[in-house]
Specification:
With 79 residues, the protein is mainly alpha-helical. The protein has two helices and two strands; from the N terminus they run ββαα.
């Protein structure tokens, strides 16, 4: 992925939620502006799907972490 702010590629292992959302927004903009050609369309749609899965997983993981912290907090308050 290319980070347009700094013009360098971001590896999948360094991908953040914010970077994924930015890339999704860029893909959406290309689709809305019709600046994407048919040859790239399939590739962009596939990438958008991957990014959506990444974002969903990140949100789910964060939700579990928050819930666990709240459970531990509640246990500590009851002790």
């Amino acid at each position: 992925m290319i980070n347009s702010d700094i013009g360098m590629e971001i590896s999948e292992e360094n991908l953040t939620y914010t970077d994924a959302i930015r890339e999704l927004e860029l893909i959406l903009q290309e689709l809305e502006d019709a600046t994407i050609n048919v040859d790239e369309l399939s590739q962009k749609v596939k990438r958008a799907g991957e990014l959506l899965v990444f974002c969903k997983n990140k949100l789910t993981s964060t939700e579990h972490e928050v819930n666990n912290l709240l459970k531990n907090f509640d246990k500590d308050q009851k002790s």
